[in-house]
Model the fold of this input.
Amino acid sequence: MSRSASPILADWTWLVYMAGDNNLEGAGHDDLVEMKQVGSTDQVHVVVQFDTERSGTTRYRVERGRLRVLEKLPGVNCGDPRTLTGFLQWGRQQYPARHYLVDVWNHGGGWENLPPDYDYEGIRAIRPRQAGALRRFRRSLFRTTIQKIHRRPRDARAIAIDCGSQDYLDNQELRLAIAGALPPGTRIDVLGCDACLMNMIEIAYEMKDTARFMVGSEETEPGTGWPYTEILQQLTTHPEQTPEDLAKTIVTEYGQWYRKQGPSSEATQSALDLDRMPPLADAVNALADALLANLKTVTGPILLARDRAQKFAMPEYVDLGDLARQLLQRLTRQAALKTAAEQILKTLPVKTGAGVVIANAVNGAGVRNATGLSIYFPEKSNYAPDYAGLRFSQDTHWRKFLEALFKL
Done:
C-alpha cells in the first residue's frame, strides 16, 4: 500500500526497525502507544516496521491517535541484513526527507560469549528487565550470521534475538545493510540504538562511514527504553532541528525522563559525533602502544585501573573516559602513558567542546562516572575471539594489547 502524496519534502523521516520477535514484543506495543501520543506531521514522518511472533510483520505510519497500516508482510528475519536494507530503501522512497534517523530497536549489547546451551524459545519467557540482569543472558544485537556461528567453537557463539528466525545482525552486517540502502558516498544523519549497551568505541568506529551521529546507551536500558512521546513532541514542534540538534534532544529528553523516575532508575544515554572518531581511535592506539611498551612493569596498575573504572551490566564494558582517569592516577611517572591518557580525555568528553561525545546523560549512583563511550576490556577468561573481526581491532593496537596482557 503506498502512502498519499506529500506536497512538500519533509524535514525528517524517522525509520524504526522494530525487531520484536523475542521477549520485547510487549515493549514494542508500548512504544507504539507512546509514539501515537504525538504521531507524524507533514514535516516529520514516523515509520515503523514491527516484526512480531504471532502477527507477522507490519509497516506503519504512526499518526496521532492511530497506526496507519501501510503494508502487511509475513514474518521477516530481522537478523538478515537484506531485511534492514529493504525497509530503509522502501522508507526513503515512500517518505523522502531532508534528514533521516534510523532507529534500531531490539536487544543490544557489545561483545559477549553465548553459552553452549542457549535456548531461543526460553528467551520468550524471560521478562526484559530480568533478562538484563542475567549474567548468562547475552543481550547482543550485532554479531555475525547464524551460518558463521555454527562454524565456530560452541563457547564462542553470541546472538541477538529474532527467536523465530534464530538469527541476528553483526556490526559488519549492520554497516553494510545501511550503506546498501543509501546512494554511494552518503550517510544517514542519525543512527539511534534504542537497545542496551551499544555506545562502545568499537561499534561507533564501525559505523563512522555510515552515519553522521549515533545515539545510544553505555548501560542496559530500563525496560521502557526511549521516551518517545517527549522526544517526538520536541521534534514535531521544532522540525527544523539539525541532525546534531536531534541527537542532543534525544539524550536530553531521555535524561530528564529517567531523572523524574528517581535515582533507582539507573540510565545512561549519549550522542556521538562520528566525524570525530578517528582522532579518538588514534589516542586509544597511542595508549595501547604505550601500555605494550611498558607492559611487564605496569601490569598491576593497569589491572587496578580497569577494576576501579566505571563498568556496566557486562563488566567487560569499561567506560573509556573513566579508564583514562584511573590510569592517570596510577601511572604518573610514565610520560608516554600519561600523554596518551590525557589525549583521550581531550578527544572524548563533552566538556572539551570538540569531543566525540556531544551530549551525555546519566541517572543513578551506579553509573555516575559514565562519560558516554565504553571500550572492551575483559578479563582473560571472558575474552571473545570474535573481537579480531572489528574494524577498530584491525585499525588500532587495542586488541594486540589485550592479547599480550592475557599471555602474561
